[in-house]
Amino acid sequence: MSRPYSLSQPLRLDAVQHWDIETEVAVVGFGIAGACAAIEARLAGATVTVFELAAVSGGSTALSGGEFYLGGNGGTAVQRAAGFEDATEDFREYLMMAGGANADEARVRCYAEGARDHFDWLVAQGVPFKGTYSAEKCLEPLTDDTLVWSGSEKAWPFAERARPAPRGHAAQLVGMGAGRVIMEKLTERVNALGIQTRYSARALALVADDDNRVHGLVVRIDGEPRVVRASKGVILCTGGFICNEDMVRRYVPAALKCPNPTSAGNDHGAGIQLGASVGGATIHMGEFFATRPMFPPDQLLNGILVNTTGQRFINEDAYHGRVTQYMMRQPGDHCWLLVDNAIFARPWVFQDIEISAAGETWEEVEAELGMPAGELVHTVTTYNRHAAGGQDPLWHKIPQYLRPLVEPPFAALNFGGDAVSGTSFTLGGLSTLPTGQVLTPDGNVIEGLYAAGRTACGIPRWGDGYSSGMSLGDSSFFGRQAGRHAANT
Ligand SMILES: Cc1cc2nc3c(=O)[nH]c(=O)nc-3n(C[C@H](O)[C@H](O)[C@H](O)COP(=O)(O)OP(=O)(O)OC[C@H]3O[C@@H](n4cnc5c(N)ncnc54)[C@H](O)[C@@H]3O)c2cc1C
Question: Is it the case that residue 3 has pLDDT exceeding 80?
């Protein structure tokens, strides 16, 4: 009978009888973090083997919108061509705000200073970018344009502290899902560089000595466990844990309010468990990205969100993931988007959205929603009075989306968790240095072990601050960092 291997218990080095496979750097997972780690390690001269559970490369990256959050140093070539100067200090400040209390200053600085050159590196690997700018607010560009506003840059409070610039850089594809193009190109590059790839290869356990220094791993290939020696390091890039119901219930139960995994299906937390098995610390495990997008069409952002007490609770023009975090925190996870006839539309993502109440007056809507008399009417009246003058003194929505809601009939669209089914993925993971080296709870480096992508807790580490492109930007950038460091040890 073959030995039972465990993600949560390493195989001890002295129990290894022979190595089935030998490599210098072993990369586990062939999404974007794994691809970039492998390429950079190979470019630094190491022999590299990638082990991927699926029969093909791609992971969740291949399903993604293909947007990278990049800027700084005066702007990428695309930002500058579109007339946007993006100072490193503004980019850094935005990223610090996006991390909130969880922000990691050293990681943010490293990223803010290196992201512009990272764009050039992606281009050099063959990832196509058309180089054009689209001013249209979108979830993902439907055109093949590159540069988009993909976060809360223009919204309060971000715009007060960081000069706004569009920083979403989407790979070239007409329509959604440009992540597929990215993974095709990076896979071609991996193959061209002579990196070994083993598909249908599931990591089962790490190999570590009694001091928890990592020497390799055990991988199931063709139904058999193979013991792999990785003399320079193992880089864990297996994605997050949104598909692992036990881990979600234990660490991030709030994500169940947006129950559809934003994932290709293999975000089972394997890498996080492997890292923890040798003493790796896990951090910010309760943080997650979630969305129940109210737009497109963006005319709906002229509406206002209210909770069961008839109160507004967010500037509706903030990034849709931030808005969703605020939605989920309202009493009973109930909230409605109030619209009038002039802006009424059905959100693209929720074409069958429930209209909870409608009326010729806001008093009728208020009564139908069962709210305390006068509360909703007061909220709308106050909003309308200020919006007429282009102001939103309570929540600071930008003038572009300020329009009094005065044209009957009026309606309340149900954006509560009982009515719309959002999607989510996890942001917590292994604690690492910007080099990708995995840390213990005491801050000591675990020799021979690295993590990147959603297996690590990276730049995006606060659901309220996420912007589209932060995960691919972080995964690719810090994947490279890990690959380079491992190769040079
Ligand atoms: C529809 C959608 C749209 C998105 N749009 C964007 C966007 O535009 N911009 C952005 O920044 N983010 C976006 N995201 C999020 C982003 O795609 C992911 O967070 C990111 O791709 C994570 O990269 P990764 O390399 O960590 O993981 P992945 O790309 O998921 O790669 C992990 C790989 O590890 C493999 N694996 C898992 N377990 C094992 C194991 N035990 N052994 C071996 N291999 C294993 C998996 O099969 C997978 O191939 C989107 C996600 C989705 C689903």
Answer: no
Q: In angstroms, what is the span from residue 42 Cα to ligand 1's centroid?
A: 22
Instruction: Give the Cα separation of 400 and 93 in Å (integer).
Output: 24
Domain match, 350 and 395 both? yes
- Ligand 1 pocket, 166 CB below 6 A? no
Q: Is residue 97 included in any domain, yes or no? A: no
pLDDT at 179 over 90: yes
| Residue 124, domain extent | 67-89+107-170
**Which residue has its alpha carbon closest to ligand 1 atom 4?**
64
Beta-carbon contacts of residue 223 (< 8 Å; ≥ 6 apart) = none
Domain match, 166 and 217 both: no
**Does position 363 have pLDDT exceeding 60, yes or no?**
yes
How many domains are contained in the chain? 3
Q: Which of 120, 141, 170 is the last residue of a domain?
A: 170
Q: Are 380 and 303 in the same domain?
A: yes
340-356: pLDDT as tens digits: 999 999 999 999 999 99
C-alpha 212 – ligand 1 centre gap (Å): 27
Per-residue pLDDT band for 4 (boundaries 50, 70, 90) equals confident
Is 21's C-beta closer than 6 angstroms to any atom of ligand 1?
Answer: no
How many A from CA of 62 to the centre of ligand 1? 7
pLDDT (average), residues 182-195: 98
Q: Determine the pLDDT at residue 1.
A: 42
| Token duo for residue 346 | 């059905």
- pLDDT value of position 302: 98
Does any ligand 1 atom lie closer than 6 A to the CB of residue 91? no
Distance CA(353)–CA(258), nearest Å, equals: 16
- How far is the centre of ligand 1, averaged over its atoms, from the C-alpha of 60 (Å)? 3
Rounded to whole angstroms, the Cα distance separating 214 from 9 reads 12
Residues 297 and 404 both lie in one domain: yes
What totals of helices (H) and strands (E) does the chain contain, helices first?
A: 12, 21
Ligand 1 atom showing the smallest separation from residue 202 Cα: 42
Q: Is the pLDDT of residue 2 over 80?
A: no
**Pocket probe mutation, ligand 1, options 6, 7, 27, 61, max atoms within 8 Å of Cβ:** 61
**Phi, psi (degrees; rounded to nearest 5) at 24:** -85, -45
Domain CATH code at residue 197: 3.50.50.60
What's the DSSP call for residue 54?
S
Tens digit of each residue's pLDDT (9 = 90 or more) over 23-37: 999 999 999 999 999
